[in-house]
Amino acid sequence: MREIKFRAWHKFKKKMYKVYDLKGDSATGELCALSLNDDNAVGVNLFPCALPNVELMQYTGLKDKNGKEIWESDILLYDRKHLEHPVAFEVLYRCGGYAQRRLGKRETKLEDMPPDPCDSLLYEWNQLEVIGNKFDDPELLGGGE
Prior knowledge:
Layout: E1 6-10, E2 15-24, E3 31-37, E4 43-46, E5 54-63, E6 69-71, E7 74-78, E8 87-94, E9 97-103, E10 128-133
Antiparallel strand pairs: 1-2, 1-5, 2-3, 3-4, 5-6, 7-8, 7-10, 8-9
Protein backbone atom coordinates (compact mmCIF):
# COMPACT_ATOMS: atom_id res chain seq x y z
CA MET A 1 0.00 0.00 0.00
CA ARG A 2 1.34 3.44 -0.91
CA GLU A 3 1.79 6.36 1.44
CA ILE A 4 -0.98 8.97 1.08
CA LYS A 5 0.30 12.52 1.47
CA PHE A 6 -0.32 15.94 0.00
CA ARG A 7 1.45 19.19 -0.66
CA ALA A 8 -0.05 22.58 -1.54
CA TRP A 9 1.09 25.56 -3.61
CA HIS A 10 -0.05 28.85 -2.06
CA LYS A 11 -0.90 31.09 -5.02
CA PHE A 12 -0.32 34.41 -3.26
CA LYS A 13 2.70 33.48 -1.17
CA LYS A 14 4.22 31.64 -4.18
CA LYS A 15 5.40 28.89 -1.89
CA MET A 16 5.08 25.11 -1.63
CA TYR A 17 3.90 23.69 1.70
CA LYS A 18 3.56 20.22 3.16
CA VAL A 19 -0.04 19.41 4.11
CA TYR A 20 -0.17 17.89 7.57
CA ASP A 21 -3.92 17.98 8.14
CA LEU A 22 -7.02 17.92 5.91
CA LYS A 23 -10.53 18.38 7.18
CA GLY A 24 -13.56 17.53 5.09
CA ASP A 25 -17.32 17.69 5.43
CA SER A 26 -18.55 14.10 5.58
CA ALA A 27 -22.00 15.09 4.29
CA THR A 28 -20.83 16.96 1.17
CA GLY A 29 -17.34 15.56 0.62
CA GLU A 30 -16.08 19.14 0.39
CA LEU A 31 -12.69 20.16 1.74
CA CYS A 32 -13.21 22.41 4.79
CA ALA A 33 -9.74 23.23 6.10
CA LEU A 34 -6.03 22.61 5.47
CA SER A 35 -3.09 22.86 7.82
CA LEU A 36 0.22 23.51 6.10
CA ASN A 37 3.85 23.88 7.08
CA ASP A 38 7.06 24.60 5.22
CA ASP A 39 10.51 23.11 5.74
CA ASN A 40 11.07 25.56 8.62
CA ALA A 41 7.91 24.28 10.40
CA VAL A 42 6.14 27.59 9.82
CA GLY A 43 2.45 26.73 9.97
CA VAL A 44 -0.48 28.10 8.00
CA ASN A 45 -4.13 27.20 8.63
CA LEU A 46 -6.56 27.72 5.77
CA PHE A 47 -10.32 27.70 6.09
CA PRO A 48 -13.01 27.57 3.37
CA CYS A 49 -12.69 31.19 2.26
CA ALA A 50 -8.93 30.74 1.66
CA LEU A 51 -8.99 27.30 0.00
CA PRO A 52 -9.23 28.74 -3.53
CA ASN A 53 -5.79 30.27 -2.84
CA VAL A 54 -4.06 26.87 -2.88
CA GLU A 55 -3.44 24.11 -5.40
CA LEU A 56 -3.54 20.74 -3.68
CA MET A 57 -1.31 17.95 -5.05
CA GLN A 58 -1.01 14.30 -4.10
CA TYR A 59 2.08 12.10 -3.92
CA THR A 60 1.92 9.39 -6.60
CA GLY A 61 3.61 6.75 -4.45
CA LEU A 62 6.42 6.53 -7.03
CA LYS A 63 10.03 7.67 -6.95
CA ASP A 64 12.17 8.69 -9.91
CA LYS A 65 15.42 7.04 -10.97
CA ASN A 66 17.26 9.04 -8.26
CA GLY A 67 14.84 8.11 -5.46
CA LYS A 68 13.05 11.49 -5.45
CA GLU A 69 9.30 11.41 -4.79
CA ILE A 70 7.06 12.02 -7.83
CA TRP A 71 4.12 14.36 -7.12
CA GLU A 72 1.18 15.58 -9.16
CA SER A 73 2.30 18.72 -11.11
CA ASP A 74 5.96 17.63 -11.15
CA ILE A 75 7.94 18.00 -14.37
CA LEU A 76 9.73 14.79 -15.36
CA LEU A 77 12.48 14.18 -17.87
CA TYR A 78 12.53 10.95 -19.89
CA ASP A 79 16.03 10.51 -21.31
CA ARG A 80 16.76 7.16 -22.89
CA LYS A 81 19.99 6.54 -24.78
CA HIS A 82 18.15 5.62 -27.98
CA LEU A 83 16.15 8.89 -28.05
CA GLU A 84 17.56 11.76 -30.07
CA HIS A 85 16.35 14.28 -27.47
CA PRO A 86 15.07 13.91 -23.89
CA VAL A 87 11.31 14.35 -23.51
CA ALA A 88 9.70 16.32 -20.66
CA PHE A 89 6.32 15.53 -19.07
CA GLU A 90 4.00 17.07 -16.51
CA VAL A 91 2.42 14.65 -14.01
CA LEU A 92 -1.39 14.83 -14.05
CA TYR A 93 -4.23 13.08 -12.26
CA ARG A 94 -6.57 11.89 -15.01
CA CYS A 95 -8.88 8.96 -15.69
CA GLY A 96 -8.71 7.77 -12.08
CA GLY A 97 -4.91 7.60 -11.95
CA TYR A 98 -1.66 9.39 -12.66
CA ALA A 99 -0.70 10.13 -16.23
CA GLN A 100 1.70 12.43 -18.01
CA ARG A 101 1.32 15.25 -20.51
CA ARG A 102 4.17 15.67 -22.95
CA LEU A 103 5.77 19.12 -22.97
CA GLY A 104 7.62 20.82 -25.79
CA LYS A 105 7.64 20.22 -29.53
CA ARG A 106 10.23 17.52 -30.07
CA GLU A 107 9.48 14.78 -32.58
CA THR A 108 10.23 11.26 -31.42
CA LYS A 109 9.11 7.88 -32.61
CA LEU A 110 5.88 6.80 -30.94
CA GLU A 111 7.36 3.50 -29.77
CA ASP A 112 10.22 5.37 -28.02
CA MET A 113 7.97 7.53 -25.85
CA PRO A 114 5.99 6.92 -22.69
CA PRO A 115 2.26 6.94 -23.46
CA ASP A 116 0.07 10.04 -23.55
CA PRO A 117 -2.73 10.75 -21.06
CA CYS A 118 -4.75 8.84 -19.97
CA ASP A 119 -2.15 6.07 -20.01
CA SER A 120 -0.48 5.14 -16.77
CA LEU A 121 2.51 6.91 -15.28
CA LEU A 122 3.79 3.45 -14.36
CA TYR A 123 5.32 3.03 -17.83
CA GLU A 124 9.07 3.05 -17.19
CA TRP A 125 8.63 5.45 -14.25
CA ASN A 126 12.03 4.36 -12.94
CA GLN A 127 13.58 5.88 -16.09
CA LEU A 128 12.12 9.31 -15.31
CA GLU A 129 13.80 12.14 -13.41
CA VAL A 130 12.02 14.91 -11.47
CA ILE A 131 13.47 18.20 -12.71
CA GLY A 132 11.00 20.57 -11.02
CA ASN A 133 7.31 21.36 -10.81
CA LYS A 134 4.97 23.68 -12.68
CA PHE A 135 4.75 26.16 -9.79
CA ASP A 136 8.38 26.60 -8.69
CA ASP A 137 9.70 26.14 -12.25
CA PRO A 138 7.04 27.38 -14.71
CA GLU A 139 9.66 27.86 -17.42
CA LEU A 140 9.90 24.06 -17.66
CA LEU A 141 6.33 23.86 -19.01
CA GLY A 142 7.71 24.84 -22.41
CA GLY A 143 9.63 21.57 -22.41
CA GLY A 144 12.73 23.20 -23.88
CA GLU A 145 14.03 22.72 -27.37
